[in-house]
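Here comes an entry:

___
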Amino acid sequence: MLYLILAIVASMLISIVMRLSENYSRNNLPKLAVNYVMCCLLSLVFSGTTTFFPAHEGLPLTLLLGVICGVLYLVNFLLLQWNIQRNGVVLSSTFMKLGVLVPTLFSIVVFGETPKAVQIAGIFLALAAIVLMQGGTTARGASTLGLLTLLVLGGSADCMSKIYEEIGSPDLQNQFLLYTFGTALLLCVVLCLYKKQKLSFQDCLWGLGIGIPNYFSARFLLLSLETVPAVIVFPSFSVGTIVLVTLVGMLCFKERLTTRKWITLGIILGALVLLNL
């Protein structure tokens, strides 16, 4: 459970640093690329090796899963940007967070995890809270297909962590993260060159700042799946991040919470209690 809490805290820090960076850095792709550079460096440091391809029988599978996950990471980022432009930030954020359905159902159907009745109630409460927290605004001409694609692909990226935990080698966890972030980095650099976006000092600085919690969020999420069922990890990770980001926004950025959000926070806390019974 400690790793899950640490993953939630790291995920919250990603959102906070990204928000702070908006005042200083507007070039998202170069900033994202530097973020992946930091993630790759940390993966190498914690792997305890300086080689990208250590001799290990589980390496081919680790490489394959990492590449798939890296592609999904960057595709989801681009898809989120497209959806925000087409569908607005509220609907896009809601469907992105509802992507928690995908790894949760995947773990039940494919890996046979069976949640208790109270945990099922907690999952439904968590989903209801996500919709309520983000609801209230509907974009005109919203693309249902785009939103559903964001939900499915976003959830599929989370699925990769569960798949690796089940069939991958525990000794190569950091190699898996290295290949994930390395693949996303290469694709991001190609896009930067294609769009002719230049890297500024501010992009570099904030990208490095985002990369540190980004790496630890992914690492702690993997570690939490070793000891906590995925049907608990993914909903808790999603709603827990929402709670912390909301509280930090209220305390540090002087954001005022509407009645809707206060009610939602109460529902989320109830969902977290049920999920962990």
The chain has a mean pLDDT of 83. The two ends are 12 Å apart (CA to CA).
